[in-house]
Amino acid sequence: MSSLPALLVALPLLGSTLAFLAGLLRRQSGWPVALVTAALQVVGAGVLASRAFDSTVSYVVGGFTAPFGIELVVDGLSATMALLVAVVSLAVLAYSRVAGPRSNAFYAVYLLLVAGLTGMSITGDVFNMYVFLEITGLAAYALVASGEGGRSARAALKYLIVGTVGASLFLLGIGYAFVATGTLNMADLSTQLAAVGYTEPLVQAAFALLVVGLFVKVAVFPLHAWQPDAYAGAPDSVSALISALVSTVAAYALIRIVFTVFTVEFLQANPAARSLLVAGAVVSIVFGSVLAVSQSEIKKMLAYSSVSQFGLIVGAAAVANETALIGATVHLVGHAVMKGGLFLTAGLIATATGARTVDDYEGLIQRLPLGAGTFGLLALAMVGVPPAVGFVGKWYIALGAVEASAWPLAVVILLSTLLTLAYFARILERMFFRDAGEEPRSPTSRTASDADRDGVSLGMAGVVVAAAIAAVVLGTLAFEYGQLLEPTVEALL
Question: Is the pLDDT of residue 441 over 70?
């Protein structure tokens, strides 16, 4: 039994404590502490992933025997999420060195979020997942509120209220499942639910509450109300971090609950459960795209884009076959890189030019070629232009829907490419095919935080370029990764 999964959760918790204590001795001393912690987290997650793809790694906290102790379980899927959390958090940390915020309290909460996301990724206990879900939520609320001005505070309060409702529904679902089975360990819970009977009202209610609670965290339409304001109101670094990781890990949790706890047999015995997933997918894909097209602010447009993109993940869960689930995992990784990169690039552009709206991007290629080129490449990757990773994820999910003869869902998934193009085409046309106007340095388009920044740093530019390159490179590696993931997906199904 390896203790590495436990160390992967303990490390950011220790780093968070050290970053806070360092602030008592010297202000703005938290970044080096956070950087060392994040770098060690990447190394640990990489080692764990190399082991998990060969065989499942488990650790029972306190030395108790599962299912009585809290078990941490790492397979190919959970290792992917843990490594993704570590890599993205390190990249955003490098970006935030100049972009800010820079206080020790910020870095302490930042690492607390990393701990919560890592714990959600590798836990094998549903109540422990709820605990990490709450840690993640509280840290995310605080990070959103770290921006200057009332907008960040209002966005964080809205996020707190809606997020608490989602977490409460999730906890209530756990309670129903525990009453029905008397266990909280995911593997044991799956066995006990099958013994109780998938058509029992208590089991059905537990599924509905758990899934709807996670729908709130994923921001599935119409339970997405917290997301646009949170993404738009947060500092640029925070917007990138939570857009890349928070909903991504929540979507992973949804896949884990549906397939590890309730299993495909539950979906087959309860057509209404599958219909719930299909409805969430279709509505999110369509309405998320429509709302994205109607936005004038870049960060809000990207936020509604995430509502649409996560609809694809929910659709893959509804299809429930090997091809679709591999596609869902590839798309989760790809979306984290692409959407996080887009938010970071939008922040870089705003720092350099003050542009924060669609119209402000007119002639951007003339004013800021690096920003325009990077944003354009990431946008095309999100649309699904080969060989970018955005294409591979959508291809797998659509192919899975065809294999399952889920034709209406397959059509919507394929149309999602055109819907994504609809809202990104507006920006691409303005950036590359219009003349540059006057730089938007007015108070309405330039936030107070922009004025405090030192300009675009080498670290900021390096991170956004790396994200754009990664979006393409991951696309070329995605099919090989899918083959590595096959044993894990087969075990889920």
Answer: no
Q: Which of 33-47, 51-65, 285-299: highest mean pLDDT?
A: 33-47
Unique residue bearing structure tokens 């809205």: 158
SS3 label, residue 457: coil
Q: pTM for the complete prediction?
A: 0.92
Asked whether the beta carbons of 243 and 306 are under 8 A apart, the reply is yes
Tokens of residue 485, six digits: 């993931």
Distances (CA, A) of 166 to 25, 127, 155: 38, 15, 16
**For the chain, percent helix, then strand, then coil, each to nearest 5?**
80, 5, 20
In total, the chain counts a number of residues equal to 493
Is 459 in contact with 372 (CB distance < 8 Å)? no
Distant-in-sequence, close-in-space partners of 280: CB < 8 Å, separation ≥ 6:
215, 220, 221, 311, 314
Tokens standing for residue 371:
């920003």
CA distances from 339 to 28, 204, 364 (A): 28, 34, 20
Helix (H), strand (E), coil (C) string for 62-123: HHCCCCCCCEEEECHHHHHHHHHHHHHHHHHHHHHHHHCCCCHHHHHHHHHHHHHHHHHHHE
pLDDT in the model for residue 407:
85
According to the model, what pLDDT value does residue 147 have?
76
> Could you tell me the end-to-end alpha-carbon distance of the chain, in angstroms, rounded to an integer?
25
Helix, strand, or coil here: 58? strand
Half-sphere exposure of 405 (CA within 13 A, CB side): 0
Phi then psi for residue 59, to 5 deg, are -150, 130
**What is the tens place of the pLDDT at every residue in 86-104?**
999 999 999 988 877 878 8
Residue 59, SS3 per DSSP: strand
Rg of the chain over all Cα atoms, to the nearest angstrom: 21
Q: Tell me phi and psi for residue 29, to 5 degrees.
A: -105, 5
Q: At 125, phi and psi to the nearest 5?
A: -130, 130
User: What are the phi and psi torsion angles at 58 (to 5°)?
Assistant: -135, 155
| Residue of 253, 345, 354 whose CA lies nearest to 302 | 345
Q: CA 186, CA 196: separation in Å to the nearest integer?
A: 15
Instruction: Match 């938290």 to its residue by tokens.
Output: 30
Contacts of 313 (CB under 8 A, 6+ apart): 218, 251, 254, 255, 328, 331, 332
What tokens were used for 99? 């972009």
Angle subtended by helix axes 407-433 and 271-293, to nearest 10? 20
3-state secondary structure of 274: helix
Question: Over 90: is that where the pLDDT of 85 sits?
Answer: yes
d(Cα 99, Cα 37) in Å, to the nearest integer? 20
